[in-house]
Amino acid sequence: MNVHRSNPASPSGASRRHGSRARRRRGGGPPLLWAGLVAGVVLLLAGGLVLEERSVSFDGRADAAGPSAPVSGAPSAREAVETGEEAKGEDSMGADSIPSSGPGTFVTAQGGGDRVGGSGHTLTYVVQVEDGIGIAAPEVAAEVERILADERGWTADGRTGFRRVSGGTSDFRVRLATPGTVDDICGQYGLDTGGEVNCNVGQDVMVNLKRWLLATRYYADDVTSYRALIINHEVGHFLGHGHEGCPGAGRPAPVMMQQIKGLHGCRTNVWPYDREGRALTGPAVG
To answer: Which tens digit of pLDDT belongs to each residue from 41-77?
Structure first.
């Protein structure tokens, strides 16, 4: 730690100066008095050094002794919050900046994508983003297309195909919206999403903006993967799949498992199939 401070006069120099005065006034004053004065000066100088050392606390912030300049190499207050256990608070701080509700109107991502998947029925879909949330619809559309085209996705069954469109009729809609709007649309079908979770109702795959940006504690370090879980889980409902439980400790959590409620011994997983084309499932949950 490089702490810059002024250099006070050395105690030895002070002793010599006081000693010379004592010699000039030899016999004029009690020796014990002058020895006491010298000791007092030394103590004052040492005390000044201690106070200056205390002006910077161990985390680089000024303590009660008074303000000081930042110390090179010491973490700032913000860095201290963003490291270690306190980093968990970032979720709540991020949530505060996410709008809780919006106008309930949507913009549709333009253009379209190539067909992906098996030789069976092709399901068409549009991607929509609620107005005013500051996220571009084309960006969300590109991410949804990538997820649905992955070889570990629902197309691995050899039958299901997907193609994104931007106009006309479509089989389903992927809609990124504020928590309040998700609550409103899901609530029309009797589902209580509580401002926190996603849902599939009718032809709508409703994606909660909070989950899209913050994921959950199990995926806090991999938000991109959690987005795949959102899409695969809710599209899975649209395809007719119900909830599933953990198949056993240490095994991949099924994509149709409500992982936000806990992993129950399973490992995190965001895909319905593995790279060998094997379905990753678990026991049905009513």
So the answer is: 333 334 443 333 333 222 222 323 333 233 223 322 2
Show the beta-strand stretches assigned E in 98-165.
106-108, 116-117, 122-130, 161-164
Structural tokens at position 206: 């409703």
Report if residue 239 sits inside a domain: yes
Q: Tokens at residue 71, please?
A: 């110390």
pTM score, whole prediction: 0.68
Q: Determine which helix (DSSP H) or strand (DSSP E) holds 200, and give its type and residue range.
A: strand 199-201
Q: What is the pLDDT of residues 143-162, one digit of tens each?
A: 999 999 999 999 999 999 99
* C-alpha–C-alpha distance, residues 17 and 266, integer Å: 78
Q: Are 211 and 196 in contact (CB under 8 A)?
A: yes
Task: Give the integer Cα–Cα distance in Å for 254 and 109.
Answer: 30
Tell how strand 116-117 and strand 161-164 pair up.
Answer: antiparallel
Is residue 280, in this structure, part of any structural domain at all?
no
In one-letter notation, the amino acid at residue 88 is K
| Cβ atoms within 10 Å, residue 165 | 17
Within 8 A by CB and 6+ apart from 106, the residues are: 128, 129, 130, 131, 175, 177
**Which domain covers residue 56, as residue numbers?**
11-82
Helices (H) and strands (E) in the chain, counts: 8, 7
* Residue with the two structure tokens 């609530």: 187
Do 53 and 144 reside in the same domain of the chain? no
